[in-house]
Specification:
Alpha-Beta Plaits; single chain; binds manganese (II) ion; binds (2S)-amino(hydroxy)ethanoic acid; 2 domains; 9-stranded mixed β-sheet
């Protein structure tokens, strides 16, 4: 695993007053610093949304921003907006950023890279003494992952209107703690009206979370869109009974019934089509004791496909299988949809800026669609948005083994800086094509 060290070389040819450059050492040192918040022994992160480690990362980000004199605003769902004011603050802003929360045994770069590459852009503009026409705002979205509080994309979803603030505050984790309680505990239930934030363009930088860029030796992924996502919770209610005294003919075993459904989900890549991604990533069993026949099981299901009609097919198969298993196993089943994200097509003009920024820096680039979900799906419903990817080692993500090379990190931030500078100078009233 390539460790992040102080990056190679600094900027020998110091930037002119209006020629901002990324500071590789500062970017890499900041990535290392943030990787300590929620660090696991396996070299990854356990920085669940609104847990203590997320609170530490948030506090560090805000402290850096305040030391730099940036404006720090927090909205009622805890999204953090850090603004480097431009010459004309009446103009819609440039939005960069991503998320700081991670999976339970996740990687150090999923989300964090986008936030910290965005921070590096702000600091590089400072170094060059460059005041952009439009303000540049860096965002840390609350609960992108949805690992602790379902659904994911929660903070950006409230701003996009896909979930109400009240519903979002009421979401609970496995211990029954609510989002609202955690926001209050960490001091991140803010009052900033983010729904009023006017965005000219949004650029989210992220690791690819797949193998294509590394395999093809391409520096930058120019992301044209994201596939559709649907999450379901399936409840299986049987009857808990003594394992030693209950004949199999008298059992209503919720876990066995759930196992039948897991098989159905796994076969969907055949029964729907090979582009479908169907996963049962989590199962909660009650009472979860060796000598008790499980009375209740809850499956957390993640379905994805570029074509929502195929997701309709998968959903229909899931609902039919749940009804059949209920009949066969003498249990009750319920299928609840907890997240629906339609396929997203990013703004062509914003995507083109990324493509041209990469070319201007001599970085190789290729167009690609994202298999992973991102907050930019929500941002795209409100403003011209796009994303740029950097490679990750072996395409691994959502695992502690997630890793990147230093030069990939620097390349992505440099392309982001160029795209942001160009967009920030676009004429007032310029309506992105
Ligand atoms: O699940 C996703 O696609 C994202 O990485 N959270
Ligand atoms: Mn992510
Ligand atoms: Mn993720």
């Amino acid at each position: 695993m390539a460790t992040i060290s102080a990056g190679s070389g600094t900027n020998d040819d110091a930037p002119g007053p209006s020629d901002p450059r990324i500071d590789p050492d500062r970017l890499l040192a900041t990535l290392s610093r943030f990787a300590t918040f929620g660090a696991t022994d396996g070299g990854g992160l356990n920085r669940l949304s609104l847990g203590d480690a997320d609170g530490q990362a948030r506090d560090e980000l805000c402290a850096i921003a305040r030391r730099r004199g940036y404006r720090v605003e927090v909205d009622p769902i805890g999204n953090i907006f850090i603004t480097r004011p431009g010459l004309d603050e009446t103009l819609p802003v440039l939005l960069v950023g991503s998320h700081l929360d991670s999976q339970p045994f996740g990687g150090r770069y999923d989300g964090a890279y986008g936030v910290l590459a965005g921070l590096e852009v702000l600091r590089s503009l400072d170094d060059a003494g460059l005041r952009t026409r439009r303000s540049v705002t860096l965002v840390d979205w609350t609960n992108e992952e949805g690992a602790r509080f379902s659904p994911g994309l929660l903070g950006s979803g409230v701003v996009a209107g896909t979930i109400s603030l009240a519903d979002a505050h009421a979401r609970t984790d496995a211990q029954g703690i609510t989002v609202g309680q955690e926001l209050d505990r960490l001091g991140y239930r803010g009052a900033f009206d983010s729904s009023s934030l006017a965005v000219h363009r949004s650029f989210e930088t992220h690791i690819e979370q797949g193998p294509v860029l590394e395999r093809t030796g391409t520096d930058i992924g120019v992301v044209t869109g994201v596939q559709a996502i649907r999450w379901f919770d399936v409840l299986v209610q049987g009857q808990d009974r003594h394992a030693g005294t209950t004949a199999h003919s008298d059992r209503q075993d919720a876990l066995v019934a759930a196992a039948r459904l897991i098989e159905v989900v796994d076969r969907m890549a055949d029964t729907v089509d090979e582009k479908l991604r169907a996963t049962v990533g989590e199962i909660r069993v009650q009472p979860n004791s060796r000598n008790v026949i499980p009375g209740r099981a809850v499956l957390a299901i993640d379905l994805r496909h570029p074509d929502p009609a195929r997701l309709d097919q998968a959903e229909e198969q899931l609902r039919r299988a749940a009804a059949e298993v209920a009949e066969q196993r003498g249990v009750r089943t319920e299928v609840h949809q907890v997240l629906e994200m339609p396929p997203t097509a990013f703004d062509a003009g914003t995507t083109d800026l990324i493509r041209r920024a990469a070319a201007s820096l001599g970085r190789s680039a290729m167009e690609m669609s994202s298999g992973a979900g991102h907050d930019s799906m929500n941002v795209a419903s409100r403003a011209p948005a796009s994303m740029l990817f950097i490679p990750c080692v072996d395409g691994l993500s959502h695992t502690q083994a997630e890793d990147i090379h230093d030069e990939w990190a620097v390349n992505g931030a440099s392309v982001l800086l160029t795209a942001v500078r160009w967009a920030a100078e676009e004429a007032a009233g310029h309506s992105p094509e």
